[in-house]
């Protein structure tokens, strides 16, 4: 077995690999750039080596610099994580030449499967069902338009060396094919150093389901069931689960056997994933093979009890798989929510800055992984559901614009899907993140969405259910009443604290008013509070009573309450006259006034927002890649104005209406902050 493993990656996956290596008694080496000098993976590893500046092409994807770190540390094996060099055959070759074990597949398999054009041809030869498309390379935008027209719109333009949603564009007509070709090529060049593009038919209303495979050097290849990855945005997975609520056992077996056949055909060893598109009739088509560990691997671990990182290490060390296909069982249900540093209220654009507060929910151990003794947090509480959080950040740390925006992967496991979803709802409500924009509200909204709850989703889910973007959740009348009752009871506690009497809800030595008016979500709700030692009973205008009990104290940012016999978790912030409360994807100001204050509030004018209709504001921190217009030029609605690159993704900003460019305040190459003025219009 290896004595020292260098992790050629950063963030949560580096931390994840370190945990397994530590459990196996293997020492670890972290590598870090200037931007990651104080990163969590650096703190967790036994030793760390600096490899260069923040830019990935001068640090994490520089083979020379990583190889030098390997030599200086004396590591005898390297785990590449995912992204960066994980699917780079030149890196695998460099390790082989240096006599260092690569904890991943052979160079030939990476080359064969890493190139999407070659992989589709090999898949077809191996008897795997494939999507119709043009497997040749596309030279320019004119050729892209011609081929797309021949295949028939819609089509998908994809980087041959792509992955993680980078270098991918859907085109519904010739104009989008032309524009998408150039954007996909630019992203492919910046992300992978390879600008080759190909085109395939875009299957409408598909589900994205992938098969996890494991293979050793002794000829054993097995599959560990599937993962449903259909909740995606911009081809980037957001929520995954195992197993899929859509597959039956026959389809699962057929997909698994084809995935294993493909792996065997290319001499694959280690962990890998074969991705499929599945239509409404359970016909499935090969999409690509990822020759690495997948981001969403924890859900497979949670339902099988198999530590995939451990298996990768053992296979790389020459050991045979200790589990056969007949030993693989899928027990219970697991869900993963990817927490991203992106603002869902601003079109999910990247957000950077300092994590002023970062408090994940407490981890809980349960299910097959805990029973197998593979749980990586020995101090996690035990229960009937599992909560797992794979992360690479900490409170006070910085989210950089140079790398992927993922902060953490929150996972839950339970005996069935409904219980796993409910566990995820509670865990998301308890996850505290402040200081940056993040997608927690959106993740909560998806968990409560009827289509998701019923398992009726496709890769078009986000586009169809949130066509105008995400603007938050409006609570149902019943849920709003529960929140209002909680706010009224909490306000009473705060009033007691304000008058310098104990803040406990069971203390009412000094008289506090019983009648209050709660304003929330455009509604006005008069209530009367009757407090006692165990909590408060909140009576609404129609006579409905709700019992509120909690140990919340003023100033605590998280309130765990019980309202009307059911748990309610609120993230609490103070605003003038009340609270900013966040729960289940809703973010609302809840004001609690005396009847007299409420009467006066009705006469207060609403504050008008500033008019920015004649300004193009930078929606995210990023780099100006291209300015598409000139001062004095007339532009039409939808016309491209400029391109901003942030966190390895290109974002084209377009005109919202017809107008004339009066002034351009930014130049190509400029680094901009959120709301910097890029252009002004007449």
**What is the general shape?**
globular
Helix count equals 18
Number of domains: 5
CATH architecture of the largest domain: 2-Layer Sandwich
Roughly what fraction of the amino acids lie in strands?
25-35%
| Oligomer description | single chain
Can you give the helix content as a percent range? 25-40%
Overall mean confidence score, pLDDT: 92
Largest sheet: 8 strands, antiparallel
* SS elements, strand count: 41
Low-pLDDT residue intervals, each spanning 5 or more residues: 502-509
Q: Biggest sheet: strands side by side, in what order? A: 14-13-10-11-12-15-24-22
Radius of gyration: 27 Å
Question: Whole-Å distance between the termini?
Answer: 69 Å
Q: Could you give me the name of the CATH homologous superfamily of the largest domain?
A: ATP-grasp fold, B domain
Task: Give the class from helix and strand content and strand pairing.
Answer: alpha+beta
CATH topology of the largest domain: D-amino Acid Aminotransferase, Chain A, domain 1
CATH class categorisation of the largest domain: Alpha Beta
Walk me through this protein's architecture.
- With 682 residues, the protein is of the alpha+beta class.
- The protein folds into five domains: 4-103, Rossmann fold (3-Layer(aba) Sandwich); 132-201, Dna Ligase, domain 1, CATH 3.30.1490.20; 207-465, D-amino Acid Aminotransferase, Chain A, domain 1, CATH 3.30.470; 477-601, Glycoprotein, Type 4 Pilin (2-Layer Sandwich); 615-681, RNA polymerase II/Efflux pump adaptor protein, barrel-sandwich hybrid domain (OB fold (Dihydrolipoamide Acetyltransferase, E2P)).
- The protein has an eight-stranded antiparallel beta sheet, sandwiched between helices. An eight-stranded antiparallel barrel has the order 26-27-28-29-30-31-32-33, surrounded by four helices.
- A hairpin with a 5-residue loop joins strand 10 (207-215) and strand 11 (221-233).
- Helix 4 packs antiparallel against helix 5 (107-114) and helix 13 runs antiparallel to helix 14.
- The chain is globular.
- 51% of the residues are buried.
